[in-house]
Structure formats: structure tokens, C-alpha cells
Amino acid sequence: MGIADRIGDLTSEVYEKLLIEEVRKGEVPGHIGIITDGNRRYARSIGISDNEGHIRGKEKLEEVLEWCMDAGVKIVTVYGFSTENFRRDRNEVDFLFHLINDALTDLLEDRRIYDNKIRVNVIGDRIKLPEYLRETIGHVEHVTKDFDRFRFNLAIGYGGREEIIAAMKNMYRSIQEGKLDIDSITEEKFREYLYDRSLPDPDLILRTSGEERISNFLLWQSAYSELYFSDVNWPDLKKTDFLKAILSYQNRKRRFGT
Q1: N or C: which end of the chain has fewer CB within 10 A?
Q2: What's the CA gap between 110 and 150, in Å, rounded?
Q3: 2 falls in which pLDDT band (50, 70, 90)?
Q4: Would you say 227 and 207 are in contact if contact means Cβ atoms under 8 Å apart?
Q5: C-alpha to C-alpha distance for 257 and 254, rounded to whole angstroms
Q6: Mean per-residue pLDDT, 22-46
Q7: How far apart are alpha carbons 216 and 212 in whole angstroms?
Q8: Which residues span the domain enclosing 101?
Q9: pLDDT at position 56 over 90
């Protein structure tokens, strides 16, 4: 490593420390939603396979979860696999399912899960997922169900519109069965029929790769979320990029429609 590289690393390290100190002075978002976009674009930009790009994306997620805990964030919901992703090439979909399955299995062997009391939960329509993945999800959720210091939610087979439609269907069944009166339906009551009724609305939604849309992610829950779009592809995200997103959130005045 040359002198210029060492100076660059030192400058980056100092900048990162300054940012984290600044972040800790303000109100940190309690719940961050993350759209991890750009794995394939990253892979093609450096000449590796799409699957290797997804692996790099998985490794980046492990880093980002550490950053969240370091900054004081308590809940993270990550868009891991959307309903639209089912339309991709079958081989890529199978690879992604096995990658997600391996990642969840590895979590149970990671001391950080137990030391930090991380509760893992999956939201989405599990019916379309392969049986081995459903079994792994159930096992991880069971093992971590009583952990309460940090929540890691993974949206798999998830679509915001699909979640709302599923909630409406379940409410209709409750009405038919006499368990719910139509005049008692409120926003709070509707929330009870979402995939995870206990999940608070995200304060901040971060999306990478430069796309400026939320792509069917937490549509009901994100009504008043602050949005931040980063130009870098997900595997290229640096801690300074992440901290800039939180600083941007802290510099906004949230009005909630008032």
C-alpha cells in the first residue's frame, strides 16, 4: 500500500469518527427500512457473476447491521426478496433462496445474535417459498423470539400491495365470522391484520443504487417515513454513506401531515 492510499484510509477513518460523533448528538431513527438495490449492477461493473454480487450483498448486510447497532438503531427491516423477484431467471431465484437459507442458518451460529439479543423475524407470503426455507425461518424465529434488544426483520416473498390485499381478505373473513364489526375498523385495527402487527412504522427508508422509488416496500407503514436515496450500489455502501443518511434524517423536520 502506497503513501497516498494510507493517507486516504486515515482521512476516511477520521471522517467516519466525526460523522458518528455528530450522529450520536441527535435523535437516531428507531426503525430503518432498507432496500438493498444494486447487487447485479455492482457485479457487472467489476466483472463478476450476478450470484457473486448477491454474496457480496449478503456480506454487506452483516456490516450494516453492525453499523445500525453502533449508531443506536433498534429495528431494521430489509427488503430481501420481493414478489417481483419471482419473475427472475429460475436459477437465480433458486440461488437466492439457498443464499437466504444459509444466511439464516449462519445467524444461529453467530454469537452476536445471542450477545446482542437480536430477534429475527420474516415478513411476507411464505406459501410460495420452498419448504426448506420455511422450516429454517420458523426455527430462527423460534430460537430468537424472546430476544429484545434489537430487531432484524427480513422481507422475503414480500410486496406492500400484496400485504394490504391479504389484510383486507383476512378482515373480510373476520367480518363474515362475526369477529369484527365493519364500523370498528380503524387504522389501528387494520394494522392488526398486517404481516407483523407489532412492527412500528419506519422512521427512515434507505435505498441504494440511485433509484428513487420504494418499489412496493412497506407501503402502509411508510406513509410518513423519511426517504433517503444513495447513488452507490448496495455492496459498495460505506459506513460514511450510511451515517450521511442518518444525518440527513436528523436535519429534517418531521411534520406528519401537520
Answers
A1: C
A2: 15
A3: low
A4: yes
A5: 9
A6: 95
A7: 12
A8: 28-159+201-222
A9: yes
Q: In this model, does residue 68 exceed pLDDT 90?
A: yes
Residue 187 lies in a domain: no
Q: How far is CA 84 from CA 87, 93, 105, in A?
A: 6, 11, 25
The helices-and-strands tally (H runs, E runs) of the chain is 9, 6
What is the predicted pLDDT for the residue at 4?
A: 42
3-state secondary structure 101-158: HHHHHHHCCCHHHHHCCEEEEEECCHHHCCHHHHHHHHHHHHHHCCCCCEEEEEEEEE
The rounded mean pLDDT for the chain is 93
40 domain residue, yes or no: yes
H or E element, residue 255: none
Number of domains in the chain: 1
Report yes or no on 57 lying in a domain: yes
Q: What is the mean pLDDT of residues 68-77?
A: 96
Q: What is the CATH number of the domain that holds 93?
A: 3.40.1180.10
- Here the cell at position 13 is 477513518
At residue 222, what are phi and psi to the nearest 5 degrees? -95, 15
What pLDDT, in 10s, does the model give residues 197-224? Answer: 999 999 999 999 999 999 999 999 999 9
Residue reference for cell 451515517: 243
Number of neighbouring beta carbons within 10 Å of residue 247 = 14
* φ/ψ (deg, to 5) at 213: -160, 165
Q: Which one, of 29, 21, 58, 24, lies nearest residue 206 by Cα?
A: 29
CA dist 225 and 203 (Å) reads 5
**Residues classed as catalytic:** 37, 85
Residue 5 within a domain:
no
- Whether 71 and 28 have beta carbons less than 8 Å apart is answered as yes
80 three-class SS: strand
